[in-house]
Amino acid sequence: MEDLQIPVKQRANKPFPQSSRAAESWSSGLVVLLIVLALTASVGGLFWEGLYRDSEKIQAAWFVNDLVTLIVVLPLMLGAWWRARRQRFAAGLLLNGLLVYLFYNYAFYLFGAVFNTFFLLYILLVAGSFYALALRLLNMDWTVLRQRTQQLPNVGWVSAFMVFIALPLLLAEGGMVLQATLSGKVPETPSVIFALDLTIVVPASLLAGLLLWRRNTWGYLLAVLMSVKALTYGIVLTVMTVYILYILGGEMDPLLPFYLFVMLAGGLSVVYLLREPGKPWMSAHKVARTLQRITKPHITNET
After folding, report:
1. Distance between CA atoms of residues 204 and 198, nearest Å
2. More confident residue, 297 or 240
């Protein structure tokens, strides 16, 4: 009872109970191992000529994934791990979201890439990120999570964003799967994309939106995880589109505005959800106006 009366900020920085120190130590060590493995995979993917045996278009995707993982995700992950070890609760939440990125990202390599020398490395990354996330979730302070959920000034726009992520994927990819099933034709889109999006991204995002709307603690946690995933994979898809267009001379992806929106809105959502409880934040109206200003096309007046 005494522990429940400790303010959120103080309890978030409070050392873990003795009973959970071992599990926390294991998960922390596993995160360090994952950073080393992901560093090896990304550097090898960028500089080991002949590693990937896929088509030129798929190899371009691996190149961009490796690049973003190396220069964006791994520095964020190392910083979040360092601060989480000092009992920074928000850093621990960010680290959990980055583990979701690792799991989702390297699942594409494991199940979608033509067999290569790093196959065992992909197994370790996918399995390791899953179990590291599981260990971290088992040792989270759910009292702090609950209070963070209740102290959010407004959950409406984040809930709407979560649903907005899920519905287009469900309709577009679900429609392609249904069409291919009925016609008997193999779709052009790799099936691993359907498998991961329809089993992970769509249900997790929908649950996050619906539960967060009701200020359920699981909704807050899922919203953090999926917002980090939206931010990081929004960066991947945006950079990939630019790379294919300007480096490979390919065609413009008409979904580029959607990728930009997901990246920017995901970043706003991460900052909003991980901010210190009680700290002033923009109102939902200001957030909506900011997103509208970002996505509104520039209009030039001809003279």
Report:
1. 9
2. 240
Say what the pLDDT of residue 284 is.
52
Among 23, 24, 125, CA closest to 81? 24
Residue 167 binned pLDDT confidence (cut-offs 50, 70, 90)? very high
| pLDDT value at residue 2 | 37
Buried b (16+ CB within 10 A) or exposed e, 268-280: bbbebbbeebeee
Cα gap 223→208, rounded to integer Å: 5
Specify the pLDDT at position 25.
Answer: 81
pLDDT band at 289 (very low <50, low <70, confident <90, very high): low
For residues 126-135, one letter each, b for 16 or more C-beta atoms within 10 angstroms of the residue's C-beta and e for the rest, the string is bebbebbbeb
> Where do the domains of the chain lie, and which CATH numbers do they carry?
19-140 (1.20.140), 153-294 (no CATH)
The model's pTM is 0.85
pLDDT mean across residues, the chain: 87
